[in-house]
User: Which sequence fits this backbone?
């Protein structure tokens, strides 16, 4: 539920409509504004609107923002921003690949912008990465506009598949060392909420993991007030499927909140901060901007209030009892129109 202006001197490019941008209703100002919840909005100044459009599955926009650089917005929700996307993607990828003893084969659910693949391909042990995204238009858009990931998209180890992640995993015979859920947030009417359910984790994801395999997913807002939207429920759902489940979080400035990820396996996560640092030096090309051993270890030390909520969470995510973050996807918007 985002609002983008296109007046007061803001420049436009590639199809941006000066009268109305099709993502939702837009007020005329120099600011992008996102409704985080009913009585709370987050806004920041724009240099320009680089692109807006609508795919079969979702609305998409690329904005040039003053505080965060280029920002990708899908269905009115900020997905990543140039200046701090490294926090999200390093946190999503590296803890799981470092805890795994020898990650060679990786499957990404979603990840169309290419940043998750970029971080995975920095690992020297990785031999094959399958990136499966349902929205070809978003993938092609990101290939064209997000030049930081150009090298990842051209890497011979990357296999790009346009398909529903569930259907793709069900149809494949091979299994993987790490499966990563880099999916859009579970919003009502969005394309991804069915990929956060117990049945999906238990009967589709887990059977496709190799022994000692690890599953990790982005799990939505994890702040002191926002973690009960979906984070606690996804955590409790994974606890029904895997023996060892580790929730962790980091603050992402452009999201205006703390964000959460959840790592799960039937093998324990035992590496110390020092051991993680050794693996970072040995296995990862280049230097991380955000994560080291201490950061990984401390990221799973959640606040007392959040820990208590996670411990007391009883809801299991199913298609019939799904939780959503605030907002709604383009499919629901069309039905309501």
Assistant:
């Amino acid at each position: 539920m985002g609002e983008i202006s296109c007046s007061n001197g803001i420049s436009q490019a590639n199809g941006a409509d000066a009268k109305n941008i099709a993502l939702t209703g837009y007020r005329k100002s120099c600011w992008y504004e996102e409704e985080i919840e009913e009585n709370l909005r987050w806004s920041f100044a724009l240099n320009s609107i680089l692109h807006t459009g609508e795919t079969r599955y979702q609305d998409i926009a690329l904005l040039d923002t003053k505080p965060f650089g280029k920002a990708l917005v899908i269905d009115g929700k900020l997905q990543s921003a140039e200046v701090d996307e490294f926090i999200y993607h390093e946190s999503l990828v590296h803890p799981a690949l470092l805890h795994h003893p020898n990650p060679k084969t990786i499957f990404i659910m979603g990840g169309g912008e290419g940043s998750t693949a970029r971080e995975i391909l920095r690992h020297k042990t990785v031999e094959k990465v399958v990136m499966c995204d349902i929205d070809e238009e978003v993938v092609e858009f990101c290939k064209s506009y997000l030049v930081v990931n150009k090298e990842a998209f051209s890497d011979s180890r990357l296999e790009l598949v346009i398909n529903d992640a569930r259907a793709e995993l069900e149809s494949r015979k091979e299994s993987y060392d790490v499966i990563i859920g880099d999916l859009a947030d579970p919003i009502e009417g969005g394309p991804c909420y069915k990929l956060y359910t117990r049945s999906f984790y238990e009967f589709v994801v887990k059977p496709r993991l190799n022994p000692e395999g690890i599953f990790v997913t982005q799990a939505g807002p994890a702040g002191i007030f926002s973690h009960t939207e979906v984070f606690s429920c996804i955590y409790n759902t994974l606890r029904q499927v895997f023996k060892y489940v580790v929730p962790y979080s980091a603050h992402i400035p452009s999201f205006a909140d703390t964000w959460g990820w959840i790592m799960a396996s039937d093998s324990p996560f035992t590496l110390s901060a020092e051991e993680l640092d050794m693996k970072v030096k040995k296995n990862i090309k280049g230097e991380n901007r955000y994560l080291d051993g201490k950061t990984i270890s401390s990221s799973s030390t959640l606040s007392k209030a959040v820990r208590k909520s996670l411990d007391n969470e009883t809801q299991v995510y199913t298609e019939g009892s799904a939780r959503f973050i605030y907002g709604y996807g383009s499919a629901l918007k069309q039905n309501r129109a």
